[in-house]
Amino acid sequence: MPDSGYIDLHCHTTFSDGSFEPEDVVALAARAGVAVLAITDHDDVRSWERAGAAAQAAGIRLLPGVELSAEFEGREVHVLGYGLDPTHEPLGAALEEFHAARRTRAERMVRALQQLGFTITMADVAPAGYTGAIGRPHLARHLVETGQLRSVQAAFDRYLRRGRPAFVPKMVIDPVRACELIRDAGGVPVLAHPVYLNADDRIPALAKCGLGGIEVNHSGQTPSKRAKYAKLADRLGLVKTGGCDFHGAAKPDVHFGDVRTPLAWLPPVEAAIAAAQDAAGVGARLT
Ligand code: AMP
Ligand code: ZN
Ligand code: FE
Ligand code: FE
Fold first, then answer.
1. DSSP assignment string, 206-256
2. Whose CA is nearest to atom 13 of ligand 1?
3. Which protein residue has the closest C-alpha to ligand 1 atom 1?
4. Is 8 in contact with 242 (CB distance < 8 Å)?
5. pLDDT tens-digit series, residues 182-196
6. 116-124, long-range: CB within 8 Å, 24+ apart, which pairs?
């Protein structure tokens, strides 16, 4: 284990709705003092190879990760997965299905935006050859880059949030399935940014779906929320994680270094990963 720096276990690249390539994300993290990084693209694990080489060159460690979307009691929940094998076939098949659903959904949102008078096509959102997971930030960024809207936040607030005119729901799976997909690939499922669930009292019930951890530190969580989630994780016997959820242009106010989680939180996460890999009989190399 490195003896200085901090861990950051939540960020996105161009393999989903981040605006930086994996190599650039790794370099930005390393420059900001991150010693152990996990890239957690939405529904995608393919940055792993490129990011791994970059991490090695930058002298930082990389945990393979992913972020899945699920629905629990009518609320969207994100489930992070750590230590899973990015080459696991059943996981790959599920992610392909999610990708296809995301593309169909993006086509519907593009049509809705066109009907609202915006100039936008699928080619703007996902250029030919783009194979990553398409999300609403791809649409929002086009509207901002072309001067049609002032900010990504405005795009969400006025058009893309649930309840707004260009919103189309995502294909949803339940948290049990999300946790199974991660565990079957040798990973540990962790509840992402619990504050967005907006139902702290439901976290214990949600944890029973197969979660192994809670993301205690996150750029959207205040110190008092973090303290509360840390206590809850300890009480439920779950590991604690943290990350800033860096996206680049899709979340321009979030930078590596904004959320610093101590290296001391890593060994329990690694122990949980080792147990998950033993149980599944598969797992990724931890570099
Ligand atoms: P999607 O995968 O299409 O549901 O988009 C989810 C991503 O959009 C999240 O990871 C955030 O980066 C971003 N996002 C979701 N809700 C908002 C919001 N209200 N304001 C700004 N960004 C958001
Ligand atoms: Zn995102
Ligand atoms: Fe998320
Ligand atoms: Fe995220």
1. HHTTT--EEEEEETTS-HHHHHHHHHHHHHHT-EEEEE--B-GGGSTT--T
2. 137
3. 135
4. yes
5. 999 999 999 999 999
6. 116/159, 116/165, 116/166, 118/143, 118/148, 119/146, 119/148, 120/148
Say how far apart CA 4 and CA 69 lie, in whole Å: 33
* Residue of 68, 136, 156 to mutate, ligand 1, most atoms within 8 A of C-beta: 136
230-262 pLDDT per residue, tens: 999 999 999 999 999 999 999 999 999 999 999
Q: Calculate the CA dihedral of residues 262, 264, 265, 266 and round it to 10 degrees.
A: 110
